[in-house]
Amino acid sequence: MIRALIFDFDGLIIDTESAVYQAWQELYADHGHPLPIERWAQCVGTDFGAYDPKAELEMLTGKDFDWHEEERLRSKRVYDLLADFDSLPGVRELLVEAKAAGVPCSIASSSPRVWIEPWLEKMNLRQYFVNISSRDVVERIKPAPDLFLHAAAQLEVLPDEVVVFEDSLNGLRAAHAAGMKCVVVPGPVTKHLHFEGAWQTLDSLASISLAQLLQL
Question: Within 13 Å and on the Cβ side, how many CA atoms surround 154?
Fold first, then answer.
């Protein structure tokens, strides 16, 4: 029985992943180096533990960077790229359907809450989430299960009563580690990956409804 839904944020609710990747690509290009998507995808859904683009760029260029300033400029670039964007197809409809059916929803994201909240307010989606489990409230982020287990505890449901929606391989691994069913909706940055073990893999959340999900 499905009693709750847990959503990743970046790349699943809004395609911040593509914008962040583009901003990093532009920074690398400014210094004469490419940033292949295969390398970048290693850190999608988590942090720079598996792959650190900052350390790599410093190694490639032999330069030290003011990363505080670079982060400010990169964040501005991401906001500019997404200025006219809304939530990805099917997200709002699924949330509306879940709320009408009394199925609670939560966000579990490796990003900080200060990044997530403004986007939700901008898209008028905050009202649909009972809880936001962000990197601020756990010791380990994805691919560790902590974020999903924290979200389930806040929703007062067991792991096998949850469906997780993810776009990244690190997210899928975290859902598996938490003992939860995972529906993967790859985005432009992750569509080249192989999501072995996903409960379902969809091109878009617009291709499934809550009623169809419950029937599965």
Answer: 21
- In the chain, the percentage of residues whose pLDDT exceeds 90 is 85
Active-site residue numbers? 8, 10
Give how many domains the chain has, as a whole number: 2
Q: Using the predicted structure, report yes or no on whether residue 210 has a pLDDT greater than 90.
A: yes
Question: Are 209 and 186 within one domain?
Answer: yes
Are 76 and 97 members of one domain? no
Tell me how far CA of residue 32 lies from CA of 59, 61, 72, in angstroms: 13, 9, 21
Q: What's the angle, vertex CA 141, arms to CA 135 and CA 147, rounded to 5?
A: 75
Could you give the CA distance from residue 114 to residue 126 in angstroms, rounded to a whole number? 13
pLDDT score recorded for residue 67:
95
3-state helix, strand, coil in the chain (%, to 5): 50, 10, 40
Q: What is the pLDDT of residues 167-188, one digit of tens each?
A: 999 999 999 999 999 999 999 9
Among 64, 81, 98, the domain boundary falls at 81
For residue 31, give the nearest of 64, 80, 4 by alpha carbon.
64
pLDDT at 206: 97
pTM of the model: 0.90
Q: Which domain holds residue 180?
A: 4-14+88-215
